[in-house]
Structures are given as C-alpha cells and as structure tokens.
Specification:
By secondary structure, the protein is an alpha+beta fold. Helices cover 26% and strands 22% of the residues. The chain has 6 helices and 10 strands; from the N terminus they run αβαβββββββααααββ. The strands form 3 sheets. It has a 4-stranded antiparallel sheet. The protein has a 4-stranded antiparallel sheet with strand order 2-3-4-8. Strands 9-10 form a two-stranded antiparallel sheet. The structure holds a DNA duplex.
Length: 249
DNA sequence: AGCATTGTTTCACA
DNA sequence: TTGTGAAACAATGC
C-alpha cells in the first residue's frame, strides 16, 4: 500500500526501535537485498544500533551507531514495516533485524519489490513532495511535454507521489491528468501545489492514501463523487488513471 | 486463464 | 544530450 503517507507511517514505526542492539540480520533474500550478497548487510550492521530514521518521498533510510553505514529501505508495491510481530508464516518477511531482548523489525512484502540496501544512493531523487516549495514545484513539475500525471509520478521531479495520490490530487484540484505539464497556467499549478500539500497531510493524519475521496470511485459506481458524471479510465504515465472529464480540465 | 496491481529501474527512441 | 514512454521485475488477487 505504500505511497508517501504509508512510508511516513513506516518511518515512525522504525523510530520505535531506535537504540536497540542488533543481534542478527536476515538478509538472505538476494533479490530484495540486491546488489548485496547474503551476509553483507548483516556484517555491516550487526552489533550496532539504529540511531535515526529518515524519509524522502517513499525512500527510507536509517543511520546506525559507531559510524556504521546507513540502512536503506523501500516498501516497493506492497511492503510494510512490522515490529515485534511473529515471523510471517508464508515467508513474506523479506528482510529482518532481531534486537537484543527479543524484539524484531521486518520488511514484510508479498510482492517482493521492496528493497533493503546499505548506503543507499538518492542522488537522482527529487525533493520530498511534502516539503517542496511552491516555486520548486512549479520549476520541477510544471514543465516539459509530458502529461502532468506523469510528472507527478516522476520521483526525480518530486518524490513521494504514487498512482492513487496523483489521481486524488488531480481530482481535488480539478486538473486533467492529460494536461501537458509545461502548458498549465501558474495559478493552476499553484492550486495543484496547495492541494498536494493538503492531500499529503490528510492522508498521513488519516492513516493512508486510501482515505482519499476519489479512490473509491475506482471500484464503486464509476461516477464522479462531485458531479456524478461517469469517470474516464486510461493509461497515463504508465499507470491506470481515473478522472472526471467534466470536472477536470 | 488472463489481466491488473498503490513501485522502480533499464532500455529504446525521438 | 535530454526527455519521454514502454517493458521488465515478482507475486498475488480478482
């Protein structure tokens, strides 16, 4: 379920296990832990403690004690951080730490597209969508010939917006996902920016991107919750996109 | 059976 | 060179 709000939730989970000594590491999933060989991450962080949990967009990283390397984590398409729970019965724990005293932190991920890595590289990731300024937003997102939805999803432009959040923000701001990013007027870009901030704050407060207004329209009647017109569906920016052709221009 | 999926990276092409 | 878009990746659910 992870987009920015879920990643922030995960970060707060990690904060609860800071300061505990890591006594063992399960890094045996060589796909999730690529390009590291099994045992490599374990060797780098066993015996240390996690000291600070950070997030930029959907990317998480945790500092480690005694000059140890950062531990990078990504939830992928279906991951979550599980604390002190019993081991997933179906083998869905793709990476895990065990702490002195018996605690545990796992990356639980059915799809296996999540990631655990040492010293993550964020050089090609844009500023966090919840912290970007209006000017930065206009400069990075409001340009180019790609449709605005594709720009919102581009983690190199701004980081954190996923498919559901993009649809929600565009619907709230009454902007068509097909609008060419570079052709959107400054007032409309500003409105989109303000709505993005509001939707992010709202989703974090309510517990996830699922709490948006337009998301249920995907499965339910297929009509716009605001004007009742039939919603349109198409692939934009490589993802299934729903929007109201009457409200959104 | 077949298709879609809340994400990212890589590669082909203009 | 830069920007854009499609495919690949893994595994599950409808």
């Amino acid at each position: 379920m992870p987009e920015l709000p879920e990643a922030e939730r995960a970060r707060r989970q990690i904060e609860r296990v800071l300061g505990r000594e890591i006594v063992s590491v399960d890094d045996t999933d060589s796909y999730v832990c690529r390009p590291h060989a099994p045992g490599e991450i374990a060797a780098a962080i066993t015996g240390r403690t996690l000291t600070e949990a950070h997030r930029r967009g959907k990317f998480l990283w945790v500092e480690t004690s005694d000059g140890g390397p950062d531990l990078g984590l990504h939830l992928g398409m279906a991951g979550s951080i599980v604390l002190d729970g019993h081991r997933a019965p179906n083998g869905w724990d793709r990476f895990a730490l065990e702490f002195a005293g018996g605690g545990r932190m796992a990356l639980r991920d059915k799809r296996r597209l999540g990631r655990a890595v040492i010293e993550p590289d964020f050089s090609h990731i844009g500023p966090d969508a919840g912290e970007v300024t209006a000017k930065e937003f206009r400069d990075r997102v409001g340009r180019g010939s790609a449709p605005i939805k594709a720009k919102l999803l581009d983690q190199g432009a701004i980081a954190g917006v996923g498919n559901l959040l993009a649809d929600e923000v565009l619907w709230q701001a009454k902007v068509s996902p097909q609008a060419i990013a570079g052709e959107i007027s400054r007032p409309r870009l500003n409105r989109l920016y303000e709505q993005l901030q509001a939707s992010i704050a709202d989703a974090i407060a309510k517990g996830g991107v699922h709490t948006g207004v337009v998301i249920p329209a995907r499965k339910g009647s297929g009509t716009c919750p605001r004007c009742d017109a039939p919603m349109t569906r198409a692939t934009i920016g490589g993802r299934t996109t729903w929007w109201c052709p009457r409200c959104q221009r």
